[in-house]
Automatic annotation (TrEMBL):
SUPFAM superfamilies: P-loop containing nucleoside triphosphate hydrolases. Belongs to the sulfotransferase 1 family. The keyword tRNA processing does not apply. Transmembrane segments: none annotated. One of its GO terms (molecular function) is sulfotransferase activity. GO terms for cellular component: cytoplasm. It comes from the Eukaryota. Residues 71-329 form the Sulfotransferase domain. This is Sulfotransferase.
């Protein structure tokens, strides 16, 4: 055996041993932590204050063990259904605007989720591939800030949040489509109750949002805190802010040539949801998870909760939101913009 083969084999078996150790740790954790009813699977587990799918807990352990950030990395963080798909498209097309033409753009041919990796699922063994991504590398995550390894929290993070009532309704639709066939359907009433108790993937919603909001106040140069509703109302204004934050401000010439408007148009709900790839295509995450792109595009509106929640349900969620966000300076919901 050559020395290089020997070193590679030794390294690989050390990595395998580390990996197996993490799997063991994961098994013990799952047995020890509280569990609650899941939305797509039977149970979610409370890991350090947040309700996670068992695989997300394992991936979090792997992320802490293996992920190495680079100073130029940019992360997109969000609670599920707060606008991740839209932001992915906007960030990808803004960073790469000099590489691609608007008439034949990668977003015309692949779903927004193929633009950059989602580290909650794709950490191992894909982690070794991340070193080959061009700088600035971009990654997406749904983990709350408190569950991210310190090497990530020192990078730039774009966070997007949304009225929890719309998040709840959007998540209920999405999770119902992905709920295990072995389980009975989850009614909106049940989902509502669980959401209010904080039990949904990556929940409690409010603690998730606050984890990034507080950090954005402490280090505004590191966290750009966006609201879905503001993006809907003034997409060009938000996109310009996003470009500055990512270190790629639009030049006077680009503004003159309406590049901002072109990116907004390319990434709009109307454009993306009508593309063949987003009507028929499938997005693979890691080895096992596949999601049909069409499930990422439902209505794309502010206030669809009005078609699903009663006045009483609205009052209850707004009450929790006011209570949880009291004193934080953050306003979400009806008067958020
Ligand atoms: P609705 O279910 O309310 O329609 P995420 O991307 O975080 O999974 O969030 C999905 C939500 O964002 C869905 O909300 C989806 O329709 C909406 N969405 C997806 N792409 C969008 C876009 N380009 N512009 C606005 N909303 C978008």
């Amino acid at each position: 055996m050559s020395i290089s083969t020997y070193l590679t084999t030794t390294l690989e078996s050390k990595q395998d041993a580390d990996y197996n150790k993490i799997c063991e740790e994961h098994k013990h954790l799952i047995e020890a932590v509280p569990k609650g009813n899941g939305w797509s699977v039977q149970h979610l587990y409370n890991y350090n204050g947040f309700w996670l799918h068992p695989n997300s807990i394992k991936n979090n352990l792997l992320l802490h063990a293996y992920f190495k950030s680079q100073p130029t990395d940019i992360f997109l963080a969000s609670f599920m259904k707060a606008g991740t798909t839209w932001l992915k498209a906007l960030m990808f097309s803004t960073i790469n605007r000099h590489r691609y033409s608007f008439s034949d753009h990668p977003l015309h041919h692949h779903g927004p989720h193929a633009s950059f990796p989602y580290i909650d699922i794709e950490t191992y063994p894909a982690i070794s591939d991340f070193t080959h991504l061009p700088a600035p590398r971009m990654f997406a995550t749904h983990y709350p800030r408190t569950l991210l390894p310190p090497c990530i929290t020192s990078c730039k993070i774009v966070y997007v949040c949304r009225d929890p009532k719309d998040v709840l309704v959007s998540k209920w639709h999405f999770m119902s489509n992905h709920r295990s066939k072995d389980l009975p359907p989850l009614s909106l009433d049940e989902a509502f109750e669980l959401f209010c108790q904080g039990i949904s993937d990556y929940g409690p919603f409010w603690e998730h949002v606050l984890s990034y909001w507080r950090a954005s106040l402490e280090t505004p140069d590191k966290i750009l805190f966006l609201k879905y509703e503001e993006m809907k109302k003034q997409p060009e204004v938000v996109l310009r802010k996003l470009a500055v934050f990512m270190g790629k401000p639009f030049t006077a010439e680009e503004l003159e040539k309406s590049v901002v408007e072109k990116i907004v148009e390319l990434c709009s709900f109307e454009t993306l949801s009508n593309l063949e790839v987003n009507k028929k295509g499938v997005q693979k995450f890691g080895k096992f998870l596949e999601v049909e792109n069409r499930h990422y595009f439902r209505k794309g509106e502010i206030g669809d909760w009005k078609n699903h929640l009663s006045e009483e349900m609205k009052q209850r969620i707004d009450g929790i939101t006011n209570e949880k966000l009291k004193g934080s300076g953050l306003i979400l919901g009806v008067n958020s913009t």
